[in-house]
Amino acid sequence: MRGMLAAVVVCLAMIPAGDIADSGKQSGPAFSGQALVRPTDYATWPVVGTSLGLTYSDHPQSGPGAFHRVYMNPSAYDQFLRTRSFPDGTMFVLEEREARQKTSILRGGFFEGRRIALASSVKDRQRFRAGWAYFDFDNGARATATAFDDSECHSCHVAHGQQDSVFVQFYPALRGGD
Ligand code: HEC
Fold first, then answer.
1. Of 17, 52, 85, 107, which has the fewest beta carbons less than 10 angstroms from its beta carbon?
2. Using CA atoms in the order 140, 126, 49, 109, what is the torsion angle rounded to 10 degrees?
């Protein structure tokens, strides 16, 4: 009996604290070789923030711009709320949708129209030199995507994202407080 208990304790000790698998939810990054597989179930993931018309281009846009909605895989989200840090295996999905108006009874305001972009980021310090890598699924046309060079995506994220290369400042569900 004592031996069994010791064995159980040893087994538990082998599971890293907060391991992704230990939350019982499987959704998260899956790779095919070097390529990230497009998640098919991200619509069920927590939405950490939404925005309208965010742009980092010098050319001012006409109209409201696009809606951005950022999803986070559930197990990493649960863990972030407990630890306030992003575990390896964190995955974000950034979905962009056109802003539509004046349909049906609407006189004002904007609602989300067709999806126009689908991008993703993944944290994995073993796999990626910068800790994070960034992917574009060509609005869902690609079943897998390979990582961009750090200079194309990560450079801006690491310089301006508030926490660990993530734009936490724009996500109420992550920034806490307000
Ligand atoms: C010049 C700065 C800049 C560059 C370059 C950039 N991003 Fe971002 N990214 C942002 C900002 C600002 C946000 C905040 C939310 C938004 O735009 O909806 C963001 C958010 C994201 C998110 C949501 C998770 C997070 O980290 O906040 C993903 C995924 C993402 N970007 C993917 C990419 C990909 C893929 C590339 C390269 C093709 C890229 N980004 C290049 C500024 C940048």
1. 107
2. -30
pLDDT number for residue 21? 44
Backbone angles phi, psi at 67, to 5 degrees: -75, 135
Ligand 1 in reach of 6 Cβ (< 6 A): no
In contact, 120 and 69? CB cutoff 8 Å: no
Q: Which of 13, 10, 46, 11 is nearest to 28 (CA)?
A: 46
Contacting residues for 99 by C-beta, under 8 A, at least 6 apart? 52, 53, 63, 64, 65, 66, 67, 110, 111, 112, 113
Residue nearest atom 20 in ligand 1 by C-alpha distance: 167
Mean pLDDT by 10 residues, the chain (178 residues): 45 39 64 96 96 85 92 97 98 97 88 97 97 98 98 97 98 90
Give CA–CA dist 26/12, Å, rounded: 19
